[in-house]
Design a protein that fits this description.
eight-stranded mixed sheet, single chain, 16% strand, 49% helix, alpha+beta, elongated
């Protein structure tokens, strides 16, 4: 990601934070029943409890920005990452989960845990200004961000803030790098080859044609396919394509929701 792009994201985040602060001022005097922004006071335990309650109520989607400022020891950071990811256990299968994080906070063990899952967490990595945010079903958000008065934690239901957060998330997500790409396939060259092979599998290209396009023998191509299927925990070629799309390695097939997780026998 270029420096210009980083500057654009930082400016966008500053605008979101300014919108949160102004919305807090607007809604401060409303009754509890009408509050669209609710401050959350307390320590890290309170933050986790609030996040857990919101996650437990998700029915469609969970979107997470995990980009806090690295100001604690590595040991504490590892403990908190484990606690944060444990909040996702027990989420209903139909809920789509997307996680954006920064390179220093990428939990490779958690990324590997997604391989072979029927509904993996899609994880991408980008350079993002410090922000912790949780957006549930597009209707409620929990934000922990630095502001002019220090760190602020708030549960947000104000539509204008939710729209700004959603736009910010999607903007970063579209340019972010799938975490599974480098972890599953190694260096950039291997990752690019794996993407091309997955694309061929997704498109139904025959082994002979795909091997010729990659300048390898059919035998070598089939070995690559077997290795990729093993890495993704897939039992069929089609299932490998579906899981790769869910992990963010490929665009999701338009008809994937209507197709079974099985495909024709491997050639």
């Amino acid at each position: 990601m270029s420096d210009r792009r980083e500057d654009e994201l930082e400016q966008a985040l500053l605008q979101v934070q300014a919108l949160i602060e102004s919305s807090v001022a607007i809604h401060r005097d409303r009754s509890v029943q009408q509050q669209l922004i609710t401050p959350v006071d307390g320590g890290y335990g309170t933050v986790l409890d609030t996040a857990q309650e919101l996650i437990a109520g998700a029915t469609r989607s969970i979107e997470i920005v995990h980009a806090r400022r690295p100001s604690v020891s590595d040991r504490i950071a590892r403990q908190s990452e484990r606690a944060e990811r444990d909040l996702l256990h027990g989420v209903a299968e139909e809920v789509r989960i997307r996680l954006l994080t920064i390179p220093p906070l990428l939990d490779e063990e958690f990324v590997r845990e997604q391989f072979g899952r029927e509904r993996p967490v899609a994880i991408r990595v980008a350079r993002i200004p410090p922000l912790q945010a949780l957006i549930v079903d597009g209707s409620t958000a929990f934000v922990v961000a630095e502001s002019t008065v220090g760190r602020r934690s708030s549960v947000i239901r104000a539509p204008e803030v939710l729209r700004a957060l959603g736009t910010f998330f999607q903007s970063v997500w579209s340019d972010a790098v799938p975490a599974a790409e480098s972890i599953a396939f190694g260096d950039r060259g291997h990752a690019a080859l794996a993407q091309r092979i997955l694309g061929a599998l997704q498109a139904g290209v025959t082994d002979e044609v795909a091997a010729r396009e990659q300048n390898v023998s059919v035998r070598t191509y089939r070995r690559y396919v077997a290795e990729i299927m093993s890495l993704l925990g897939a039992n069929s070629r089609f299932q490998a394509g579906v899981r790769a799309a869910e992990l963010g390695l490929l665009p999701a097939p338009a008809s994937s929701a209507a197709r079974p997780l099985t495909g024709p026998p491997g050639r």
